[in-house]
Amino acid sequence: DIEMTQSPSSLSASVGDRVTITCRASQSISTYLNWYQQKPGKAPKFLIYAASSLQSGVPSRFSGSRSGTDFTLTISNVQPEDFATYYCQQSYSAPLTFGGGTKVEIK
Amino acid sequence: QVQLQESGPGLVKPSETLSLTCNVSGDSISNYYWSWIRQPPGMGLEWIGYMSSNGRTTYNPSLQSRVTISVDTSKNQVSLKLSSVTAADTAIYYCATLPSVWGQGTLVTVSS
Predict the structure, then answer these.
(1) Do B46 and A89 touch (CB under 8 A)?
(2) What is the predicted pLDDT for the residue at B54?
(3) Which of A18, A61, B15, B57 stands 20 to 30 A from B87 (CA)?
(4) Closest Cα partner for A35 from B98, B34, B93, B96?
(5) CB atoms within 10 A of CB A105
(6) Confidence band (pLDDT; 50, 70, 90) for A4?
(7) Closest CA in chain B for residue A43
(8) Is B99 close to A100, i.e. CB distance below 8 A?
(9) Closest-CA residue in chain B for A32?
(10) B3 lies within 8 A of chain A by CB
């Protein structure tokens, strides 16, 4: 199985801050990497596919990048509605696997 | 836009079989891969498996011996069966056409 290691597990940020979340794959997954946002009591919401492509309707303050097996989700100018838990997920091979999640809290 | 709605018993006894249904609306069920994902309360996401548009299934090896995913095209429904459940199977269960469309999820508690 491909292990997805997400860091940090939680972070505190203020409105307007730039937030960076990292996801490391245990082997090469090319750009087969998705990012999701989940709020309490809700299903995950799809944000980014192919490591850096923004899903339609997702604000442009969200961005993704890749460097080898390291992937980054960046939220620039974080807004109140962005406080949530974020997950990465590899779609390179079965079993599909998720990172452990990063909870973004208000400072 | 396809929409998904999970349904099924909220309480299942240990050793019994968990059975859930996902009702699909807005498009033909034949056009998609169908995944089930679960999330224990307060924890992360675990992929259970999927059925492809040609009917091939792929399961998470950690659950493979207990899982069956099937599709009923006449009813536009996707089903999940998980046998011999224990308390560790207590979770919110989601059906999804990964990555973009998810159902709202349904909580299943395993308890006597």
Answers:
(1) no
(2) 87
(3) B57
(4) B98
(5) 11
(6) very high
(7) B104
(8) no
(9) B99
(10) no
For the stretch B41-77, pLDDT in tens is 999 999 999 999 888 999 999 999 999 999 999 999 9
Give the Å distances, CA to CA, from B61 to A63, A74, A95, A96, B37: 33, 33, 7, 11, 14
- Residues in B touching A100 (Cβ below 8 Å): 44
- Residue written as token pair 């011999």: B84
CA angle, A8 then A101 then B44, to 5°:
145
Tokens of A50: 């192919």
Mutation target to probe the B interface, by most B beta carbons within 10 A, among A2, A89, A96 is A96
